[in-house]
Specification:
By secondary structure, the protein is of the alpha+beta class. Helix content is 42%, strand content 24%. The strands form two sheets. It has a two-stranded antiparallel sheet. A two-stranded antiparallel sheet has the order 3-4. β1 and β2 form a beta hairpin. It is elongated, with a radius of gyration of 19 Å.
């Protein structure tokens, strides 16, 4: 684990992520990262947790209502 230094970026405070961290997250300049609080601390992820929850719900509905969706597709 490496330590990251906080730095001034304009009127804000930011952190510069090393190339290795960016590679592990599979992100680059201009991409978005999402911050969420978990029981283990703060999590930084390139995936929107709210969108992921919506997709999980959609998959559950599609699975449980597949007969109805099949009829609608006809």
């Amino acid at each position: 684990m490496s330590a990251l230094k906080l730095t001034t970026i304009g009127n804000s405070t930011g952190v510069v992520l090393p190339k290795e961290v960016l590679a592990k997250l599979r992100v680059g300049k201009g991409d978005r990262l999402y911050v969420s609080e978990t029981p283990n601390g703060i999590e930084l992820t390139p995936f929107d947790p709210d969108f992921a929850a919506q997709m999980d719900m959609a998959e559950e509905i599609m699975h449980s209502e597949r007969d109805v969706l099949k009829k609608l597709a006809e």
